[in-house]
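Job type: complex structure
Entries:
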Amino acid sequence: MRFVHFIELLLIAGILIAIGIPLFVKLPKTRPFATINPTKEEYNHLLVRKEEVLLSIRELEIDFKTDKISGEDYENLRRKMEGEAMETLERIDQLERESKKGRKSVTKNFTLA
Amino acid sequence: MNDIGEFTLMVALATSLYGTVAYVMAARGNRMDLYRSAGKAPVITWACVMVSSIALWNALFTNDFSLQYVWAYSNIELDYFYKFSSFWGGQKGSLLFWALILTSYMTAVYFQGRPKNLLLVSYAMAVMLAITTFFLFLLNFSTNPFERIPLPPLDGRGLNPMLQNYWMVIHPPTLYLGYIGFTVPFAFAMAALITKNLDDAWIRLTRKWTLIAWFFLCMGNLFGASWAYVELGWGGYWAWDPVENASFMPLIVATAYLHSVMIQEKKDMMKVWNMSLILLTFVMTIFGTFITRSGLIQSVHTFDEATLGYYFLAFLLFIIVLCVVLIIKRLPLLKSKNELDSFLSREASFLLNNLVLLGIGFATFWGTIFPIISEAVRGVKITVGPPFYNQVNVPIGLILLALIGIGPVIAWRRATWSNLKKNFMKPVITASVGAAALFPIVPLSNRSEIYTYIAFILCIFVMSTIIMEFFKGTRARRELHQETAVSALGTLVWRNKRRYGGYIVHVGVVMIFAGIAASQSYGTHVEKHVKIGETIEIGDYMLRYEKLVPIQATSVKTRVVAQLAVEKNGRRIWTARPEKEFYKGQDQPVSEVDVRSTLVSDLYVILADFREDESATLKVYLNPMVSWLWMGGWVIALGTVVCAWPDRLEQRRRLERLKRQQAVFAPAQE
């Protein structure tokens, strides 16, 4: 056997072992991806939206301080964005409450069982 | 080593194919074993492609002419510097280089995304592995760089002399890093479409990657222009060559995306538009590759053995169909929940900027493909040259320049006419003063000069709006925090990296606009046949032809150098040494120009021809403000670094978000 072929053989064996080990060893029975939970997706989205709205309020303040918008527009937009932020926060709170409630009922059922 | 290189290329193909299938199966079946196993594929594929690349470099450095590729693009006398760059000098090597960069990006994304354990990342990896599989398939079965010659010759044919320039060592890797870099946002966009995870998670995951790819593509274009300027010897840097256009188009579309994606992040709208733009950017990069490797178009940039047209065309069509189908299927999920607050807002100006950029992109695309369409339909090849592009793109470019100035002055969400008037007052007055000052100085005898005059006025306008932005921001911080001006400016930029980094990039773009405008309109040139002692006059310069010196540089290269004393106001300020290089086995000599570059203008000297009596034909160009282009490039680089610099506050916000998610829904998912 040529030395090159020996190296090639070693390489294939190494790759097969690296790729194959996870397929044949016993792994903990966890799932790599959590099942898509629309509530969780919405919650994640809202957390990002909350940050974006708060950042937008900061930018609005900069725009106002640098004279890009009038006082009246600043007040109107600020009110609108704060309203948007409040709505987002309320929805986040609601989802958190629902999630906690859901968990409690699961724990309760588990204890009863 | 060649055997190993060829073998690892095949193993890389098998591994990437396995990785693609395993990732998809792991995601669909939610199987940990397959997920873990697939996770090995990106690294193994990268390692195999790296071994193949080292094998090819080794063959180039050791003059192994048993490889057809080494024989075709190298020879014994070739400098090691260029032996290194011969790797991407021909089609086969450049495809391997493509695969190397692609797998490197993929591995980096793998390590970045692994801790997040996301479904989105898994599908993105599958998409990247699928694209890698396509390139590795070509490398293995159609254009193998390890193809042998049964009877190896003693020496190689050598690298094309035009490619023996230091810019060719820098330009292709930079351009490739840009081209290939867009695979990452493309893969995540596809993953978002497949998994229906269409909020802005994929945008946040790829924000930095997109910026990095955009930066490299931008610099790659500029480096290419630099190479054309010093190596092609025609006095210019951009000729609207189809291949130049092919790298310009993705840059334009990506620039539109970088602007419009901000609206999605801020207002949760324009999802379809952003998705389409990033997919189009990737499609444009593949289109560019198709142009270079199909043999359809003749250019200094196309490869000699351009035979991969059908493969790339099929790949291109497949991607387009897939993107269109996926977008149509996901349209209900991509609908915006918000709308524009006002048409007089920064969002609206960004939209307009997008339309203008796409206008430039479309005009360039049409000019590029029109000769192909005309030949296919009528059998006549019509050349679309610089006049078409200048006629269409220059006015649109001026609108774009104006928008660069207008954007920062308009507020997000809603601006009012009274505030606009107030904010535009100073920049407009500055631009008007500039216009009045320039009017008696600059010539205005034709359309090109009028456009340049307008461009200069707009450059002054844009610069003043940007300076005002920095000034007002600094003043506001000083008033609020009682800081010194320098500290307030530093903190302002540091706390708002994206905003002010973007403004710095705009400064670079303005410099490039100014450089292009001046050099395209006010350049002059003289061509003269001179004997020793005779002079050439151009602008304020006088060039005295002193001597012609032949130099045997190496056994395969002879240089013939003309020496000229350059005088200004009677004082010798520089010695120009343009030359012609003759390579053994090459029919055409190569001109090596000599350039004296200042902020005002470039004195650009070409030795066009010479005779036995030592008389020579010299071309001398006086190109105003070309150095502004290259300086603009470095300013863009600085701005991009500021934009891409890790933001501690953003990282802290992300961590807080993750903690909160963990508290509410365990385990945490981004």
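Summary: Residues 62 and 68 of chain A are 9 Å apart (CA to CA). The mean pLDDT of chain A is 78.
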